[in-house]
Amino acid sequence: MILPILSYGSPILKKEAIEITQDYPNLNELIDNMWETMYAAQGVGLAAPQIGISIRLFVIDASPFVDKENMTDEEIETLRNFKKVFINPNISLEGGNEWNFNEGCLSIPDVREDVSRKEKITLEYFDENFNSKKINLKGLSARVVQHEYDHIEGILFVDHLSPLKKRLIKGKLNSILKGDITVDYKMSFPKKIKR
Question: What is the dihedral sign for C-alpha 10, 14, 15, 16?
């Protein structure tokens, strides 16, 4: 089932999510719904808080990045096969140089900005079967994980921007807050919700 994605300004997006256990109700159905919602919105990642559930869970399919230029064969192979479910993830190590990449977010449509992140991470997590995993990532796969990881920490990519850049996009963010934008996928806007 395709679920509405919460927009910028929704309080749950600024809240640190909680860990879950293996007996979390309807977990497989939730994961299936997240995949369906993400693909319907043409995203590469989706975190549970973005659909209004404040738990430490996100899904990523980085294969759309394979078309980017200037990639090594190793990067292409990594991204082509990078479709994963991350439950209760923990970034245990960040390293390498910081590098900029133009990021966007399904919760912040029509806003894209360069964000600086570390190029390498080590991540411990559980997969959809609650098998414990540990992986080392670099480049775009590390970046996408860091972006989604931020969501479960209550951080949005615009929180990484300088005060000047935040001022420059303030009008766009205010339009999102009011729901004065058009998107090709289901969204829920905080000021359109009756309280």
Answer: positive
132: CB partners within 8 A, 6+ apart? 124, 125, 126
3-state class of 77 per DSSP? helix
Q: Class for domain 5-187, per CATH? A: alpha beta
- pTM comes to 0.93
Domain boundaries, the chain: 5-187
Identified catalytic residue from 36, 69, 94, 148: 148
Q: Look up 19 and say whether it is catalytic.
A: no
What tens digit of pLDDT does each residue of 29-70 get? 999 999 999 999 999 999 999 999 999 999 999 998 887 667
CA distances from residue 95 to 16, 98, 113, 115 in whole angstroms, order as listed: 23, 8, 22, 16
